[in-house]
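Suppose a colleague, Dr. K., hands you the sequence of a protein chain of 247 amino acids and asks what its three-dimensional shape might be. Before reaching for any lab equipment, you can write down a predicted structure in token form. Begin with the sequence itself:
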Amino acid sequence: MTKVDSNKLIIFYRDMKQTVLIRLPVIYDAGGDLSKKWFIEFYVRNPRTGFMERQRKSKGINKFHTIKARQAAAEKMRHYWSDRLKAGWSPFTDELIIYEDNLEYQTFIKKYRTSKSKNGTFRYFASQYLDTIQSEVEDNTISTYRSKLRMFDAWLEDHQLSDADISVINQPLMEKFMLFIINDLKRSKSTVDNYRILLDAVFKFVRKKRKLFPNPCIDLPGTNRVNESATEPIHEEDISIFKEAII
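The predicted structure, expressed as tokens, is then:
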């Protein structure tokens, strides 16, 4: 396939480290073959993974059946997506918003830096939270809290978010985690409630550090499942047998 206008490929840089954030669109015209699909292609670095990810767009190009008309449509689309990318648009604007539409390029860079920050992660704030309550609760309680917070951090890591700034954690994400605890791990009502209470406490702590950070622990799903019970006590008549076995 022929790569059109490749000499006009623009690469943006962050600071002086030459970290490529965007490769602007180029046209793939299948060597002028109208029987094949034409499209434009560009790359944007995903701040959650650190990798450049390919994007392809073809809407409105392949309906034309002459080379001249299709080239004109492809060029129009190339300009359209180039302008959007330069204005700060990103394909990563799902429920885990990292960029905002229609912002200047410097804001694009600023948010990229923020999303890669390692001193504003959930792990960072959770560790600070445990430090603040260390003298107020029992050691075994701290151990339980730490275990639950590690579970959430491991879940974030599985979703490639453990090194992202805590600002990416919103209500839809918390809802997904709670459903994971309920449906995948099949935890009981008491355990699910304990997760919700603990995470709510952590994010209230975060709000003290970041005044405008919204607490994502609202309207989270729960369960009425009762499937975790305490270990049954040893019957009195078995104590002597148990004692002999230990000795």
